[in-house]
């Protein structure tokens, strides 16, 4: 039996395929075994390579490095959210004097590689900021610029009829943004925001180029002192994986919770037939953006 572009292999061909698969698997296993044997002979994957992490001083340093990494990431994320919100609002402004500088700032910091940005901040302002704040400020500028675009895209994704209905009710643009557009855009933006937070956390590892005392720099110091790159790298990778997986699970929970709240807050079936808002989401069940109820029939 055959098709236009493919002939179904017969018994002999299937036997050859199985033999080839077995031989290929054996070759790969042999290569893997050889690599592991060489690493074991070099004391890279033996228990000796992990002995430094039983030293209380190393464990204390590891804990401090993890705290520094989490602190730098948390501060940078909070500042990046504020930075992104401010410049996204500026980019969405109707006033050119606010819009064009905001566009210039966003595009400038998005275009610079983060490594160069960290070096520029440290070399230019390191005497004032120190290593920790040089890393945090660089992360804020880069991730804040990316988040500004996420915010802008999320707000633009809200159907135009929502803002038009709100303007028809006499709301100002600031009220439309805060009461109508932003609450609806949050659900759309949340996955991208959390994803960028994970990126910011991983980017703290770039602090090693300015010897910031975070996890990557500490790992580098352990490798230099004990010559155990695989063991130290495995420990650092495990820490990053646990933290990032936890953030991903939190993101999924927040997204599901936000969607449930959105469905409960704006039930279309409960909108009064004469409600002049036309089903505009306001964050208050059954109400208008001004807080009053629709006219009774």
From TrEMBL:
<dbReference type="GO" id="GO:0006865">
    <property type="term" value="P:amino acid transport"/>
</dbReference>
<dbReference type="InterPro" id="IPR010065">
    <property type="entry name" value="AA_ABC_transptr_permease_3TM"/>
</dbReference>
<feature type="compositionally biased region" description="Gly residues">
    <location>
        <begin position="276"/>
        <end position="297"/>
    </location>
</feature>
<keyword id="KW-0812">Transmembrane</keyword>
<feature type="transmembrane region" description="Helical">
    <location>
        <begin position="230"/>
        <end position="251"/>
    </location>
</feature>
<feature type="transmembrane region" description="Helical">
    <location>
        <begin position="132"/>
        <end position="155"/>
    </location>
</feature>
<feature type="transmembrane region" description="Helical">
    <location>
        <begin position="108"/>
        <end position="126"/>
    </location>
</feature>
<feature type="domain" description="ABC transmembrane type-1">
    <location>
        <begin position="66"/>
        <end position="251"/>
    </location>
</feature>
<protein>
    <submittedName>
        <fullName>Glutamate transport system permease protein</fullName>
    </submittedName>
</protein>
<keyword id="KW-1133">Transmembrane helix</keyword>
<feature type="transmembrane region" description="Helical">
    <location>
        <begin position="21"/>
        <end position="40"/>
    </location>
</feature>
<feature type="region of interest" description="Disordered">
    <location>
        <begin position="265"/>
        <end position="297"/>
    </location>
</feature>
<keyword id="KW-1003">Cell membrane</keyword>
<keyword id="KW-0813">Transport</keyword>
<feature type="transmembrane region" description="Helical">
    <location>
        <begin position="176"/>
        <end position="201"/>
    </location>
</feature>
<dbReference type="InterPro" id="IPR000515">
    <property type="entry name" value="MetI-like"/>
</dbReference>
<dbReference type="InterPro" id="IPR043429">
    <property type="entry name" value="ArtM/GltK/GlnP/TcyL/YhdX-like"/>
</dbReference>
<dbReference type="InterPro" id="IPR035906">
    <property type="entry name" value="MetI-like_sf"/>
</dbReference>
<dbReference type="GO" id="GO:0022857">
    <property type="term" value="F:transmembrane transporter activity"/>
</dbReference>
<feature type="transmembrane region" description="Helical">
    <location>
        <begin position="65"/>
        <end position="87"/>
    </location>
</feature>
<dbReference type="GO" id="GO:0043190">
    <property type="term" value="C:ATP-binding cassette (ABC) transporter complex"/>
</dbReference>
<keyword id="KW-0472">Membrane</keyword>
<comment type="similarity">
    <text>Belongs to the binding-protein-dependent transport system permease family.</text>
</comment>
<dbReference type="Pfam" id="PF00528">
    <property type="entry name" value="BPD_transp_1"/>
</dbReference>
